[in-house]
Every structure is written in structure tokens, then in C-alpha cells.
Write a structure and sequence with these properties.
The complex is a heterodimer of chains A (305) and B (307). Chain A has 305 residues and is mainly α. Chain A is built from 15 helices and no strands. Chain A has two domains: 60 residues; 223 residues, MetI-like fold. In chain A, α3 crosses α14 and α4 packs across α11. Chain B is built from 13 helices and two strands. In chain B, α3 packs parallel to α7. The radius of gyration of chain B is 25 Å and the shape is globular. The chains are: A mainly alpha (305), B mainly alpha (307). Chains A and B meet through α1, α4, α5, α6 and α12 of A and α1, α3, α4, α5 and α6 of B.
């Protein structure tokens, strides 16, 4: 995504034509530019202000929370709200649990999606095309259809209230979305490279490990980022599989925080805002650090899907 | 694959070896598909014809679960289904149009595009529980940000999530806030950037107005992307669960009680695994039929460029 992109109709791209039209058209273009900035600003405020309000509320002392009219920025900033998040609930433990689940599931997804994508790109076998269509069609399968028997299966295995149901399935295929994304990428890597390696007697595993993976760092990073966010934000799985607070991940921990009164009856909105921001922070920071991968990753999937 | 037409191209030993290796590499997905997708789907089809409580043995019912749902014996079935349809129609239409408009804005040659793109995208990254909590506070009737802003304009805001009438619109609003700037917008943006500039240039030379160029060039050229977004948007909207579960828990008095909440409560609160499986299959068929219709009718409105 470069800055020198072609413009679309609203700003009137294209070469200026000859004649008296030119100045009038330039004028019109200036005007529409103005309205574009106005619209961008309005939309920007609509998306940005709720975040600002949340940050502001998270720093308010209880006394300032319910005054009317509300203060835009706290008169007395109370940083203590952020510390309280960790003392009122075992939030550090929730974060730790989430780190474990997220990292293991992420490793599983990257590895197995890469393995499967490699199989689909570098080998010819009967049924390859229909099987790949089947992979893609699972993208459109709502998880609700399989959730009850899956729950019963994991219950039978004794996996309820463990992290296993949240991690183990990631190692089996890693999800259609990621297989598709990596396959698209692998297809762009010239076959000559593996042919040459094959002539030198390299096994497919070596080709996969020493040629494909190192050349696919950007694509793997994209998968890693999406996988991280997916698991960090996951709600439904932890909700049905984890039932004791010491096992909670951050999503259901946060909900537990809302629905369970702890020692005092004091309003906890400020602390809740702080807790929500702490929950969202890793994902938001990751986004700022790796914006490029996001945009490329999503765009590839949408355009070639 | 052209090779596939030659009847037995894989019959030689090297090709057989290649095929075998290929199966080996994709086997994690195959095993996962059988264990976690196909197996459970068949299991769920069987369970949907039974009455099953955890720990007991399934008791064969035939189609009774389905009859119970469709006949209106279970009032919440139709009730939650129509509510979900309402939510889906609103969020898919407004969301798709909103995302497209946002993408068009970001596709203009203006300063700070990357900044605005990041800003628009952020809400979609917010974890759903945080999203629910944050908006509960923003929509707080007395001192919430939204009602305070309305108050500045002399409007008395409603009770939002605490009001039976406004709870559903509140959730639609939140979904739009979190959805407009997300992946859908980025996909539209990539689609817009894929439209050849020459098309606009020659149209401008022919004197086509901005709106004409939008409807005659932009829309047809990005129609495959629109189909993709609408398809996934419908599935996503029909599956709405977490937001409603955390923000309103289906309330007040069922005002935001969606289909998947009904499924969830049937399975994991009342432990009616058989009935919940029937609900899941009905859900699957609805999604399947809707997707099928969209794909089948798409050749009438989707323009594919042949190169």
C-alpha cells in the first residue's frame, strides 16, 4: 500500500483536459477535497472518541464518575484504578493463562497450516482440487453446528476445565483461512528452487523446512498476527470449556469481573474501563507495530477468495 | 489441473510416491476435519433426533425436536430467529454500505490516510467483552458519552441497553461501530485500488459525471468483492452471540435474545443437547440456503473480468 495510489472517482482522478474547463475543474476538485476531509474527520471522531472517553473514564476517581455534566478529562487523575484491576480480581493470572493458551495455539496453527498448505501446493495427488474446495468451504461453516458434539467429545476425553480444547484442535490443520493464505503465498515461490534441492537429494521435509519456511517469513508473520489476535480475543471456547476462575483466560476473566461483586459495592466502572483497556492493549499495540502485515493479509484473502 | 484429465497419470511409482507424500502432508487437516468437523456434524445430526442429557443415554425421538421448534411449541425459536434476521439485515446492509463509503474515503489522495485507516480499523480489534463493557458505559443513560452528546444538542437520549425498545438498536449500533472499519473495509479498499485507472480516465474524457463513474465503473468492477463481503457478513451477523451475551444477556425481557443465545442456553444451561443440536442444524441449513442463493444469483450482478 503506497502513498502514490490512483484516486477514485469522488476526487476526480485522471489527466486534466484542455480548454477553459481546467480551472473550473481544479476548483471543483479543491472543493471536493474539502468535503472529503470533513467526512474523514467526522468518521474519525466517531471511531476515536469512544476510545478517548474510555481512557478518560478509566482514570476517574469514583467521586467523579457519576457527576453531571460528566467531566471530559478527570480533574483528579487516579492511576490507582489500573493497579486495582490486579488486586480486585486475579487479573495477572488471567493474563498468564491467556498467554499460555494463545502462544501454544498460535504455534499449532502456524505449523499445521504451513504443513497442509505445502501439501496442497507442492504435490499432485488424486482429489487435490476437491479437497481444497472442501477446505475453503469450511470457512463458511458456522461453528454452532459442531459445538455440541465437540463439547461432548472433549468432555468424554476429560478435557473440561483444561486448556486442551482451546489448543489441541489448532494442531490439526490450523484453520482454512490460514491454509488458504499460506497456499497463495507458497504458489509464488518458484518451483525451480525445490526441484534443484530435490536433485541434490533433499527430502520434502528439508525443502519445506529449509526453503519454503525461510522464504515465507512475511506470510508466516501475517498468520501469526491474526492467530494471536483470534486467540487472545476468543470468548466462546473459554466460556464453555473453562469453569474455575484459576483457569480463566482474559476474556471470560473480564466478564467474571463484571458479573461478580467483589468485596465492596462501590461503583467499579472506572476500574472496569481500565481492565477493558488492559485486555485490549496487546492487540492494539500489535496492530500499530505490524500494520503492514494486517492490510496485506486481509487484502489477499478477500481479493483472491 | 490439466493432468487430471489423463486417466492414470499418477499410476507410475514416482507419481504414486508423490501422491502418497501429498496425502501425508495434508493429513493433519484431514484428521482435524474428520475429528472436529465432519464427525461432530454427523454426531449432531444424530443427537438432533434424540433427547439427550449429559451422562444419560440418547433417547430416539425422530423429528420431534424439529417439530417442537417449528410448530411454535418453543415460542423462543421463532421469536429469536426473527430478531436475528432483523439484526442481520440491519447490520449487513448498513455495515456493507458503511465499509464501502469508508474505503472510498480512504482511497482518496489526501494526507493522513494511513492514520485514518488505522483509526477506523481499531474498533474491530477490540475484544468483544471489552467492547460490551465499554459501550455499556458509553450508553449509560445519565452520564454516558452518547446521551451527554445528545444533551448538548438539546435531545434527551433513551435508556439504550436498559430499554426494551432501544436495546436491539444499541447492539446494532455497537456492531456497526466495531464492524465498519474492520476487515471488510480493508478488502473494499484493496478492491478499489485494483480498478484500472485507465477506465476512469477514458470515462472522464467521455464526460461521465462522478456518480456515473461510480455506478458504471467502480461498482461493477468491485462486485466480486461485494459478494465476498456480503456472504461472510451474513454468516457473521446470523452468528451474533458474544456481544449480546455480555452486554445485555439477551435482555431486557428478551429484547436482544438472538438465535445463538437460544442455542447456547438450550445446550449449556438447560443441557438439552438433543434439542440444541436440532437448533444447530436448522441454523446450518439457514446459512447454507442463504449462501447458496447469494452465490447462485451472483452471476446476475457480479461482474467477472476475463483476462
Amino acid at each position: 500500500m503506497t502513498t502514490s495510489n490512483p484516486t477514485t472517482p469522488l476526487s476526480g482522478g485522471g489527466t486534466p483536459s484542455t480548454g477553459t474547463n481546467v480551472s473550473r475543474r481544479a476548483n471543483r476538485r479543491q472543493l471536493s477535497k474539502f468535503w472529503i476531509y470533513v467526512l474523514l474527520l467526522v468518521a474519525g471522531l466517531a471511531f476515536g472518541l469512544p476510545f478517548f472517553w474510555t481512557i478518560s473514564s478509566s482514570l476517574k476517581p469514583i467521586t467523579e464518575l457519576f457527576v453531571f455534566p460528566p467531566t471530559v478529562w478527570p480533574e483528579n487523575i487516579r492511576w490507582q484504578n489500573y493497579a486495582d484491576v490486579f488486586t480486585i480480581a486475579p487479573f495477572a493470572l488471567f493474563i498468564w493463562n491467556t498467554v499460555i493458551v494463545t502462544s501454544l495455539a498460535m504455534i499449532g496453527q502456524i505449523l499445521s497450516a504451513a504443513v497442509v498448505a505445502f501439501g496442497f501446493t507442492r504435490f499432485r495427488f488424486p482429489g487435490r482440487e476437491p479437497l481444497f474446495v472442501l477446505v475453503l468451504s469450511t470457512l463458511m461453516l458456522p461453528w454452532q453446528v459442531t459445538v455440541v458434539p465437540q463439547f461432548l467429545l472433549f468432555r468424554y476425553l476429560g478435557w473440561i476445565n483444561t486448556f486442551a480444547p482451546l489448543i489441541v484442535p489448532s494442531f490439526f490443520g490450523g484453520g482454512a483461512f490460514y491454509i488458504f493464505m499460506l497456499r497463495q503465498f507458497f504458489l509464488t515461490i518458484p518451483r525451480d528452487l525445490d526441484e534443484a534441492a530435490k536433485l541434490d537429494g533433499a527430502s520434502s521435509f528439508r525443502i519445506f523446512w529449509n526453503i519454503m519456511l525461510p522464504l515465507s517469513k512475511a506470510a508466516l508473520a501475517t498468520v501469526a498476527i491474526f492467530s494471536f489476535i483470534g486467540h487472545w480475543n476468543e470468548f466462546f471456547g473459554p466460556l464453555i470449556y473453562l469453569n474455575s476462575p484459576d483457569k480463566f483466560t482474559i476474556s471470560i476473566g473480564l466478564r467474571y469481573f463484571v458479573s461478580n461483586p467483589f468485596e465492596s459495592d462501590e461503583p467499579r466502572e472506572a476500574i472496569l474501563m481500565a481492565a477493558s483497556l488492559i485486555t485490549a492493549a496487546p492487540v492494539l499495540m500489535l496492530f500499530f507495530a505490524a500494520q503492514k502485515y494486517f492490510v496485506q493479509g486481509i487484502a489477499t484473502t478477500g481479493l483472491k477468495g | 489441473m490439466a493432468a487430471a484429465t489423463a486417466s492414470s497419470w499418477w499410476k507410475s511409482p514416482t507419481q504414486r510416491r508423490e501422491a502418497l507424500e501429498g496425502y501425508l502432508w495434508i493429513s493433519p487437516w484431514v484428521i482435524g476435519f474428520l475429528l472436529f468437523t465432519l464427525g461432530p456434524m454427523i454426531g449432531s445430526l444424530y443427537l438432533s433426533m434424540t433427547s439427550y442429557k449429559i451422562g444419560g443415554t440418547p433417547e430416539w425421538l425422530g423429528f420431534d425436536n424439529y417439530i417442537r421448534a417449528f410448530s411454535g411449541q418453543d415460542k423462543l425459536f421463532w421469536d429469536s430467529l426473527w430478531r436475528t434476521v432483523y439484526f442481520a439485515v440491519a447490520t449487513v446492509i448498513l455495515g456493507t454500505v458503511g465499509s464501502l463509503l469508508a474505503a472510498i474515503l480512504l482511497n482518496q489522495n489526501v494526507r493522513g490516510r494511513n492514520f485514518f485507516r488505522a483509526l477506523f480499523y481499531l474498533p474491530s480489534l477490540t475484544p468483544v467483552v471489552a467492547l460490551a463493557i465499554l459501550w455499556q458505559w458509553l450508553l449509560q443513560p445519565q452520564v454516558g458519552f452518547v446521551n451527554y452528546t445528545l444533551y448538548q444538542f438539546g435531545i434527551e437520549g433513551p435508556g439504550w441497553m436498559t430499554s426494551r425498545q432501544w436495546a436491539l438498536p444499541s447492539l446494532i449500533l455497537i456492531s456497526l461501530w466495531a464492524g465498519i472499519g474492520g476487515g471488510r473495509m480493508i478488502i473494499f479498499l484493496a478492491g478499489l485500488q485494483g480498478v484500472p485507472i485507465e477506465l476512469y480516465e477514458s470515462a472522464e474524457l467521455d464526460g461521465a459525471s462522478t456518480l456515473q463513474r461510480f455506478f458504471n465503473i467502480t461498482l461493477p468492477m468491485i462486485s466480486p468483492v461485494i459478494l465476498f463481503n456480503v456472504l461472510l457478513g451474513v454468516i457473521g451477523s446470523f452468528s451474533v452471540f458474544s456481544l449480546a451475551y455480555v452486554a445485555t444477556d439477551g435482555g431486557p425481557s428478551y429484547a436482544t435474545y438472538f438465535y445463538v443465545l437460544h442455542l447456547y442456553y438450550s445446550a449449556f444451561t438447560y443441557f438439552q443437547m438433543g434439542y440444541a443440536s436440532a437448533l444447530a442444524w436448522v441454523f446450518f441449513l439457514i446459512i447454507f440456503v442463504l449462501s447458496f442463493i447469494q452465490i447462485k444469483t451472483s452471476d446476475r450482478w457480479v461482474y467477472y473480468e476475463f483476462s
